[in-house]
Amino acid sequence: MxxxxxxxxxxxxxxxxxxxxxxxxxxWVRRGPPAAARRVLLTPEPALRYxxxxxxxxxxxxxxxxxxxxxxxxxxxxxAELVLDRFAALDPDARVVTTxxxxxxxFDIASFDTGGEGQGAALLGADPRLLEVRPIGAFVQRLADxxxxxxxxxxxxxxxxxxxxxxxxxxxxxxxxxDLRPDVVLxxxxxxxxxxxxxxVRRRVATALARQGITVIAAEARFTDxxxxxxxxxxEPAQLVIAATGSAAPAWVRAxxxxxxGSGFIAVDxxxxxxxxxxxxxxxxxxxxxxxxxxxxxxxxxxxxPVIAANLRxxxxxxxxxxxxxxxxxxxxLMNTGDGRAIASYGPLVAEGRWVLAWKHRIDKGxxxxxxxxxxxx
Length: 378
Description:
Blueprint: E1 11-15, H1 19-31, E2 38-43, E3 47-49, H2 54-58, E4 68-70, H3 71-77, E5 81-84, E6 87-91, E7 96-99, E8 104-106, E9 109-112, E10 117-118, H4 120-124, E11 130-132, H5 136-149, E12 155-159, H6 163-173, E13 183-187, H7 199-211, E14 215-217, E15 221-224, E16 227-230, E17 233-234, E18 240-243, E19 247-248, H8 251-256, E20 266-268, E21 280-282, E22 287-289, H9 298-316, E23 332-336, E24 342-346, E25 349-353, H10 354-376
Parallel strand pairs: 1-2, 1-9, 2-5, 9-21, 11-18, 12-13, 12-18, 13-14, 20-22
Antiparallel strand pairs: 3-4, 6-7, 7-8, 10-19, 15-16, 16-17, 23-24, 24-25
């Protein structure tokens, strides 16, 4: 490590409190902190909201305080200093990050799990009715405020035909505390419903959407002269427009000079290590694998977490990283349809029913309970 003698411990910095870094902190709790003089978690929020449970919360299946990991308590148990501030800039060569408040944190090894940036305004245009799904905490707070005030919109447009947009549409259609179920329109974009999924899955989801009266429009939406339009058709009236349009690369990535893929995400190898700076690791929506294409899904960040934990220990010991994340050919998706059922997708396989929702709840709540127990010291 730069500026260190062999065997001398340095500073390890976790930037962002996302799904991967929760697994890193859990590793430090279980196995003891790695041999670093200083361990720091930089994140703007004291808690992580698990995005997989948000559609269920919308439909009244979970309380608002469920699906939350206490990052402060977990960091304390992991022997890490918690810095509550927003990350602003990286100098990968000087090994320094700058926070939004102007603080500077020097590091020897860093890992980034900051998430991406919402791109709704860039794709749809600016409008006061537009609400980005990212960051998920702000999204949940806005909808919680609407529910608490009794001002749930009568007609909501969801832009984005991926699994996230589909689940949000189902959750909104079945929104708890609504006197009348909102009218929901799902505008998928030109790629249509669930691009990349098997035809059997797409048909099953389309049937469920139609059964619940959710209109699907396979076209690009855009604000034009104050109105939301798709394929020349006005989508008005719309009291709320949800942008579930995927993640864009954070602007700071290219500004830092670190290697990126063609879309501006941190370029990483199978070890989740930067292809240009071997002392930097990254996962989640801020990173892109260069050895193989990988869909932007929270499941990959979850599985990448233990890999980053293992490789941080190797780097701190002066050894090359050995752990690698090798995704399976197919990923399991459990899509909550908001009506007491869910749809399971695994490659060409599809299933639907109340038992699938029970399965999803068991997995989600088990994931949260694991970290809650570690944070409490149970």
